[in-house]
């Protein structure tokens, strides 16, 4: 039930003077209506009642509300109550102690920016709250409420701190974005321009205080230079002779000891699983797990419509390799029992569910840390880096399950990776858990970038490229303090974007038109292409003389002309397009098998990262030795054979140098006379022959000196 409010409505509860903006209409149901009226008039219900009666939100316990968490953090303007709720509290300003034991009082609101900050707007004077009231505040219940809303905004490409409804910040104004500007994510729109009528926000949501937008012909200052000083020499951190085969590169990132640990955990979990069914588990060994991984990679190269198709026994459409590696039943049993953590530790962690000590990623934590550390140990990024946002699909039920609605119809969870733009190497990554205990004072997008950009391990002078979700003036300024440059596309209605409309880019501006504003180290650029492009950068000048070819409408037909392009746009496009977002090796296998355990999906994605990084290191090291690197296809083929411990000579079919002269058995020669010389003429040489092909009904010589029988069949392709 949503709250209602008339133009001059007020609470109808007897002697209630609270001016709360959330008012709820008395329900029409007779039973509920009588309960409401008895409370509102303390049991003395008058015979004549007004047509409309309201009860304000202060008369309801917290468990009556559907969106209390959203309302507390400012993400909902009005409260909603559950069906069947009845007012029970006398919510006067001096009566703050009446609340349910299951939830804190509505009279205390918490901020998403600072959990310790108590907002009192329209609810209660802060001086009325005592220390006991603050101690009674249930942080855990608020955390879950924040997660339920803030996470959903994060997943949809929204930041609960940076992306707020424009009505919360400034008066409604005309949007300055291009009409045909496609939006990859649906965002709440903030005002991007202002004519001086907006009110300031308490959370630094005011725009950049600049006077006007500058044109192309106005010179910009050169930003301060930061020397590129990486902590290590960029590239693979491996001795030249340490790795020579794909399997050796693979084991750098996925060590044998880790695989052996997974074998032990899988056997332990598989035995318990089979024991519950009254069956006996057959232990697997390291060779079995490596063969299993080989088949998962193999399935990315040869796609069948079903998992059983790889073990098909069809005479004409079967694949011989999977059956040679392991049986279908053994592959399926490993898939179902695959376990990455100690079952005993899982039980201990399960008991802690609902407490601060509970570890959401407990079932992948050992492997998670090993892969992350290995990726950072054996490679150091080049100067240009980016944040790569990925989705790992999963049908499993888990607290990590998420849906990237505008990018994929599949259900899954988010993974954020710091990727090298030059090579595509995944240097570091983390899985978004959705914990509210972490600091979110600057927004979730800010925190996700700061969690990946470690200046102590990277060094100084790096250039980070990010998309619209992450770009914010606060983030870029703080990165510059770490001596990390940043460049990214930005929403024109994002908090901190210049609000001035003086000399701003018009909607009908021709292609190549640009405007720019500099606010100390921050450069904001608007450029007109087929649509309006907005950029923010800390290391570019507004214009450095670059041009790009574009079609421009002429009198008769479109013509190609050179138009100016800002350096920030050119550099951003070059580096962001160079990164292939996670070559998904195990994606086809996951689509066929659909693991029911979320950590099995994570294991498959760890294989993606490991194999792709191993291939990149092989490629860079080969180029460093002036050798020709293996292609991706050849690398995967050799890796599959090495994991399955199959020699290339054993798996390759043997073909003779020339086609065999033996005719298939169903082409049978037959003598038509008893005489070896007499008979009719041969179809090929026109000499007499006593032999014919029964299948083809053709007279052909079949003698040592004249083998027309085989010669003719070879020419016919038999």
UniProtKB/TrEMBL annotation:
Biased composition (Acidic residues): 171-180
Positions of region (Disordered): 156-213
Keyword field: DNA-binding, Metal-binding, Zinc, Zinc-finger
Domain THAP-type residue range list: 1-90
UniProt KW Metal-binding keyword: yes
GO molecular function, one term: DNA binding
Protein name per the record: THAP-type domain-containing protein
